[in-house]
Amino acid sequence: MSIADFLPKDVSLTIAMALCAVAFISGTARGFSGFGSALIFMPLASSIAAPRLVAALLLVIDFVAAAPLLPDAWRKADRKATAVIVLGALIGVPVGTYFLSVLDPVTTRWIISCFVAALLLLLLSGWRYRGKDHAWLSVGIGSLSGFCSGLAQTGGPPIVGYWLGRPIAPIVARANIVLFFGASDFFSMVSYATTGLISRESLLLSLIVGPVYALGVAFGASLFGRASEQVFRGICYALIAMAVIFGLPALDGVLR
Questions:
Q1: In what helix (H) or strand (E) does residue 161 lie, and over which residues does it extend?
Q2: Which 3 state secondary structure label does DSSP give 149?
Q3: Which InterPro entries does this chain map to (predicted)?
């Protein structure tokens, strides 16, 4: 059995290798800084292959990569507070998935590019929510993150900005974030499977791209402590900006 046997009929070996390269870069960002993988992967990958396929692909490989973190997060998280935000994801994920399933690929790519650009600005702003806890606000942020995850697996920045601004220990904030995305990814898996976005083709492709993504995560983690986090975060921001630019459908005639 060759690599070609794992490829969807509309995905050539060249496209698969390009997806692997993007996965390695985005995985390196995730391994070092803990964020940025989807914001790099989705604009670029959706310009190479169908957005529906690459969103399902990223969901599968990232869900597998993050699963080992869940038991420790369950023990350390504020589960009651996290449950309120998870309720919002339960609302937002199916809505985002619906739009991913019905919109044409070019429209989806424009939305992804605009979303990622807006989320990059949010990251650059250094925004942290430091106000009081409100159940309606938690549900709203969870819904926004869930919608972004359902549409393009890009739900990280709103949740990170919210939890890191709360007056809680960093270890609890991190556990809350990991636990939230474990639940959000589960909702996405169910929602994607129900709408047919997770297919035999995306699962087979994940067997090729997934190990490369894992290598990127491991490589990025190995760099932690060897390079300035500030410098590397700057590099991640630059990569996200480049992903947005190169992923724009308006540049298809120039770049592809």
A1: helix 156-163
A2: helix
A3: TM_pro_TauE-like, TSUP
Encode pLDDT of 49-108 as tens digits: 888 999 999 999 988 887 887 888 899 888 998 999 999 999 999 999 999 999 888 888
| Domain boundaries defined on the chain | 11-251
Residue (of 24, 82, 95, 12) closest to 49 by Cα position:
12
Count CA within 13 A, CB hemisphere, residue 169: 6
pLDDT tens digits, 101-144: 998 888 888 888 888 888 788 777 776 666 677 778 888 989 99
Give the whole-angstrom CA distance, residue 201 versus residue 207.
10
Q: What is the pLDDT of residues 148-173, one digit of tens each?
A: 899 888 887 788 777 767 777 777 87
Residues 192, 198 contacting (CB under 8 angstroms):
yes
Q: Is 177 helix (H, G, I), strand (E, B) or coil?
A: helix
